[in-house]
Amino acid sequence: MRVVLINRSDQLGGAAIATLRLMHGLQQLGVDARMLVVDQHGNDPNVAVAGNALSRRWAFLAERLGIYARNGRRRDTLFKIDTATHGIDVSRHPWVQGADVLYLGWTNQGMLSLEDIGRLTRLGKPVIWTMHDMWPCTGLCHHAYDCREYVNDCANCPLLPSGSTLASTTLRRKADLYDRSDIHFVAVSNWLADCCHQSTLLRNHEVTVIGNPFPASEYACGFTPRPGLPDDALVVAMGAARLDDPVKGFDLLIASMQHLREHNPALADRLYLLLYGDLRDMSLLDQLPVAHTHLGYITDINAVFRQAHIVLSTSRYESFGYTLLEGMASGCIPVTTGAGGQVDIVRHLHNGYVTGSNDPVDVARGIEWAATAHIDRAAQHRWVADHFDAHIIAQRYLDLINR
Question: pTM for this structure?
Answer without folding.
Answer: 0.93
